[in-house]
Amino acid sequence: MASTKSFAQAVKERRTYYALTNESTIPDSRIQEIVKDAILHTPSAFNSQTSRAVVLLGEEHVKTWDIIAEVYKQQLPEEKFNQANKRFQGFRAAYGTILFYEDTDTVREFQEKFKTYEDKFPGWSEQTNGMHQYHVWTALETEGLGVNLQHYNPMIDVRLETEYKVPSTWNLKAQMVLGKPTSGPAVENKEFKPIEERMKVYGAK
Length: 205
Known about the structure:
The protein has helices at residues 7-13, 28-41, 59-75, 78-92, 104-113, 121-142, 157-163, and strands at 20-21, 51-57, 96-103, 146-150, 170-181. It is an alpha+beta fold. Helix 3 (59-75) packs antiparallel against helix 4 (78-92).
């Protein structure tokens, strides 16, 4: 059953959670539905639809973090790897991971199609991917899941491409970890810079 929480409330309450278990508050089908809705309905410049996602649940999620740990073990000095591995094991203990990609072939296609904006499409691609991530993150938290966002690319890109048969034209942007939270968010009381420094309004009635 979908959450009845308002969009405004969900936006205000979205936070980062690191203490996650390998349980979910919703069925796998609902997680897939949330990601599918984001892919279908999140806006993109010129309706270019450049964003892609790979949903990894259960054992596939565990395998993903084993692969990431293995890659980093080969690249880092032992002391640094041991520190990083503590984080990897924490992510591994969660329920799922969503990999967010941008399809560079589609980006180039639109660069060719709209030459006037050729230099803009890479930036627009990054923007729409961020919107996809935010859409999914907020929606998952309305369902009682905790989420955090990681960026271990590009070191892990090739191994994950091989493991999950991801086209080489898909460019990995982020790894979203999800699971049932065991404690509060990483930052309980978020501090905000003065809104007057960040927002201007003209012509309001």
